[in-house]
Specification:
The protein is mostly helical and 125 residues long. The chain is built from six helices and no strands.
């Protein structure tokens, strides 16, 4: 893990401890939000290019899947715990589940329920 990654991890876990450790907490927070905005913009641009257009509700269907994958992957909603590898594995597994339900002919409401049940499993408790 890089020093910047450790800084983000520490600030996400406990801002007070990060401040005591000598980190500039405000700079880390601003950096995290700027990085998030840049990557979100890039992702939106790539999706808009692949669809040859854009509308305000373009990503609504994927939001629950992403949140469920992050929670299933082991990321704590309290901050400070989680891994990219776990999230990626959970995302692939959840996408396979949703595609399997779709291939089976299950309705959209069944797919939403599968996502919701996955999101309710919080490993940090």
């Amino acid at each position: 893990m890089t020093p910047t990654g450790r800084s983000f991890y520490l600030v996400g876990g406990n801002q007070q401890t990060a401040w005591y450790a000598g980190l500039n907490v405000q700079r880390c927070l601003i950096g995290a939000f700027v990085l998030s905005a840049v990557l979100s913009t890039l992702g939106g641009a790539v999706i808009a290019m692949s669809e040859a257009g854009a509308n305000p509700t373009m990503g609504d269907n994927s939001l629950m899947t992403i949140v469920a994958a992050v929670i299933i992957g082991g990321t704590s909603m309290r901050g400070g715990k989680g891994s990219l590898a776990g999230t990626m594995i959970a995302l692939v597994a959840l996408a396979a589940l949703i595609n399997g339900l779709s291939c089976r002919g299950e309705g959209f409401e069944v797919q939403l329920m599968a996502k919701w049940i996955g999101a309710c499993v919080d490993h940090s408790l």
